[in-house]
Amino acid sequence: MSSSAQEKKQTSSANNPLVQVKRGRNRSINDRQALLDFIDQSLICYVGFQIAGQVRVIPTCHWRDGEYLYWHGHSKAANIAGADKEGQKVCITLSSLDGLVMARSAFHHSVNYRSAMIYGVPEAITDPEEKHEQFERFVEKISPGRWPQLRPVTATETQATGILRIKLDEASMKVRAEGVIDDKDDMDWPVWAGVLPLAPSWGEPEQDTQQTNDYPLPDKPSL
After folding, report:
1. Count of the separate structural domains present in the chain
2. 161 lies in a domain?
3. Could you report the per-residue pLDDT of 40-80, keeping only the tens digit for each?
4. Residues facing residue 40 across a β-bridge
5. Radius of gyration (C-alpha) of the chain in whole angstroms
6. What is the extent of the structural domain holding 94?
7. What residues pair up with 112 in beta bridges, in sequence order?
């Protein structure tokens, strides 16, 4: 995408009332690449949708292919079988807690975070070959290099797994990455103030107890 096209996309999204950040506008991020990187780094999203007037929010894993965000589930699951039937937009949210902001007053306590909201009408992926391609993208996201090591996907598994996608045309991102913002009169209050950063990490691998052979450990995605 050219820089002019990229700028146009950012401007279009920024002018869309649905994705305009109204509170804390100074924390709105209009950098398209920052949004894409955040989607790629995140491992779980929350899909909000309606079925017959009932609102549901379901956590699921996701991945990205170009300008589309994908998610999967059992073909009969509500977030797959229902979300694309009524032609309504879904709202997908992603968030990351990056630290606790400890202020001198309860009112000014806060958190450092990254968050994104994405709207779109779901589109079902039904072609078996395209589904296989997206299966691979998903597996390679959570463990790079693992796909060719696995037992091939069967036709039954392909049919049982549903995949939906939405285009990343209506999206917003908001970030807080700063320190304490206290009232001037509170600066001498005798309590510790600052940020407690949160740095997620993977724990020690736990091998399947029914597996007796030693195999190389899988690669893990960056957090």
Report:
1. 1
2. yes
3. 999 999 999 888 788 889 999 999 999 999 999 887 765 56
4. none
5. 21
6. 3-181
7. 99
The number of beta carbons lying within 10 Å of the beta carbon of residue 199 is 7
Question: Cα separation of 197 and 74, whole Å?
Answer: 37
Q: What is the CATH number of the domain that holds 119?
A: 2.30.110.10
Residue 160 falls in which region: left (phi positive, over 0), alpha (psi -120 to 50) or beta: alpha
Q: What is the pTM of this model?
A: 0.85
Where residue 24 falls among pLDDT bands split at 50, 70, 90? Answer: low
- pLDDT tens digits, residue range 84-112? 666 788 999 999 999 999 999 999 999 99
Whether the CA torsion 134, 139, 145, 149 is positive or negative: it is negative
Question: In the numeric block, which tokens belong to residue 151?
Answer: 């037992």
Question: In this structure, what token pair is assigned to residue 118?
Answer: 């994405």
